[in-house]
Design goal:
Blueprint lengths: L1 E2 L3 E2 L2 H18 L4 H5 L13 H7 L1 H12 L2 E6 L2 E6 L2 H10 L30 H11 L5 H28 L3 E2 H18 L5 H14 L7 H8 L4 H4 L9 H20 L7 H6 L36 H32 L1 H14 L8 H4 L3 H13 L6 E4 L4 E3 L2 E3 L4 E4 L1 H5 L18 H4 L20 H16 L2 E4 L23 E6 L2
Parallel strand pairs: 4-9
Antiparallel strand pairs: 1-2, 3-4, 5-11, 6-9, 7-8, 10-11
Helix pairs in contact: 3-4, 7-8, 7-20, 8-9, 8-14, 9-12, 12-14, 14-17, 14-20
């Protein structure tokens, strides 16, 4: 093609140049949003926004630098996507509770089904609006006190198997990666208690392998590249069967759940677990509220919402999606939390001694705890809460503004993402003096009275808080009690400080978590 009679330029080059210029303007179109809102933040670069800093430094270091430089409220760009980081707990409470109806949903990184077993948007953690509310209300009874007590024997059995697994390691004094140990325990709890699945060595290995892959997605995955740089194309990417979840993992868990469902429907009266609650939900009368931790801020407000599906159960796709959600998310986050508790106890032997003394006093002679007696271990609860503060398994969570809303003087536009920076709030010296120190006394009954809402966010906050919190706490407490009745955990020459990458999930460390178990005399 001749331009002004000067030079011939190939048509393909002009098209490529035009597309490049258009993409440049598209990727920078939102870069003026935060200055208009009066929000400070790091300067974004074309195409990448501020993602290059997160990838280069890791999410913890990058966000820690930004909060020191710009304060608790600042804005960043993940590629094209503007994200308001809110570390002010009073402002967060308004977002997660007072204005919850305007910040109900999480960021949509899902794709349509398009031949896949289930659309990721149907996962409870990803569902939006009425679908999420209906599913949350339907599933909440599965984690009531009565249901947890019925699961208790299965969890106790898994804890006893955990103790047996540690014995040869303790006898030989061999270092081991605690996360691998915790994976097996958490997998058995989730599989048996929630889904009635029999666990053997082969099942355990396969389950752990495929579950781990859910959380090891690369930022170079085409799904993530589109989500960060051209999110408007996400509805189309499913046509190419590309997903944020590895296909082989999805197929494995789909078959696992479908086989369990088939057994349920053939023998519906033999099961009392989570899966059975989903299967029979349409036959159950449900209260029009949903909360599992008795906190008034975490109740879904039904006064502004009518459940159009009230009295109905879940669809087969929803049952499959929620099953995979609990199988995978519940498995990895709880295993990680238990790992970090043992790590912190090993590095703080005085705290470990105090906890062992409480356990021995409450359960002399190594007797097994009951569900009710487990709740009486005050220092154990303090230790777990402090470990979750110091090393939360998730660095941050998010919400999306679905209606322009003014919060604490900031006019947040529709469509803007909101990040709850859990790790940074948990390490804010104003909320937590000497924040890098492991100190369970922060959660003594007296000190807890001084805490502000949302300064501890290990399980989230508001109606969208973690539905499985009480099961996770029961699992960790029972596992810790039975372990510490028999062993003491100490560091070894492979024990190093925890290091994380750029993923907002802090469930994988760069060096592993290596400890040694010692038999108690």
């Amino acid at each position: 093609m001749e331009i002004l009679g000067l030079v011939d330029i190939p048509l393909w080059f002009l098209i490529l140049l035009t597309l490049t210029v258009l993409f440049y303007f598209y990727s920078t179109a939102n870069h003026g949003m935060f200055p208009k809102m009066g929000v400070k933040g790091p300067k974004p670069i074309p195409v990448f926004g501020n993602m290059h800093e997160i990838v280069r430094k890791g999410i913890i270091e990058a966000e820690s630098e930004w909060v020191r430089q710009f304060g608790r409220v600042y804005g960043i760009h993940e590629g094209h996507y503007p994200l308001l980081i809110v570390g002010d707990v009073e402002m967060l409470r308004d977002i997660t509770v007072k204005h919850f109806n305007n910040f109900t949903n999480r960021r949509d990184l899902s794709v349509r089904k398009y031949g896949q077993p289930v659309a990721t948007r149907q996962f409870l953690t990803a569902q939006a609006d009425d679908d999420w509310r209906h599913n949350r209300i339907t599933l909440s009874p599965a984690f009531s006190t009565a249901k947890l007590k019925r699961m208790y024997d299965n969890v106790s059995k898994a804890a006893q198997n955990l103790v047996k697994t540690v014995k040869p390691l303790a006898d030989k004094g061999e270092p081991f990666d605690v996360k691998e140990l915790a994976n097996g325990y958490s997998m058995e709890v989730i599989a048996s208690s929630l889904f009635g699945l029999d666990v053997d060595a082969t099942t355990a290995q396969s389950f752990t392998t495929y579950a781990r892959k859910f959380f090891e997605g690369s930022l170079l995955n085409p799904h993530f590249l589109v989500a960060f740089f051209m999110p408007s194309l996400l509805p189309l990417i499913g046509l190419f069967k590309v997903s944020m979840v590895p296909a082989d993992s999805m197929v494995y868990f789909t078959k696992l759940v479908q086989n369990a469902l088939k057994e349920r429907r053939n023998n519906p009266k033999e099961f009392v677990d989570f899966l059975q609650i989903m299967v029979t939900a349409e036959n159950q009368a449900r209260d029009h509220t949903a909360h599992v931790d008795d906190h008034p801020d975490n109740v879904i407000d039904s006064t502004h919402w009518v459940d159009k599906r009230k009295g109905q159960g879940l669809t087969d796709d929803e049952i499959l999606a929620q099953s995979i959600t609990f199988l995978v998310a519940g498995f990895d986050t709880t295993a990680t939390s238990l790992t970090y508790v043992l790590y912190n106890l090993a590095l703080n032997p005085k705290c470990q001694d105090k906890l062992i003394a409480e356990i021995d006093e409450q359960f002399p002679g190594g007797t097994l705890p009951s569900y009710d007696s487990l709740q009486d271990l005050q220092y154990l609860d303090m230790v777990i809460c402090e470990s979750l503060r110091l090393n939360p398994p998730v660095a941050r969570m998010d919400r999306v503004c679905n209606k322009t809303t003014e919060v604490h003087g900031y006019k947040i536009p529709e469509g803007m993402g909101i990040a709850l920076p859990i790790y940074n709030i948990h390490h804010d010296p104003e909320y937590w003096p000497d924040p890098d120190k492991f100190d369970p006394e922060r959660f003594s009954p007296e000190n807890k009275k001084t805490h502000r809402p949302l300064q501890w966010l290990a399980f989230g906050y508001g109606p969208r808080s973690c539905i499985g919190m009480r099961l996770a706490m029961m699992e960790m407490k029972l596992g810790l009690v039975q372990l510490l009745q028999r062993y003491r955990f100490v560091p070894n020459n492979k024990t190093v400080p925890l290091r994380f990458g750029s993923n907002f999930m802090l469930t994988k460390t760069k060096d592993g978590v290596w400890l040694t178990a010692q038999n108690r005399k």
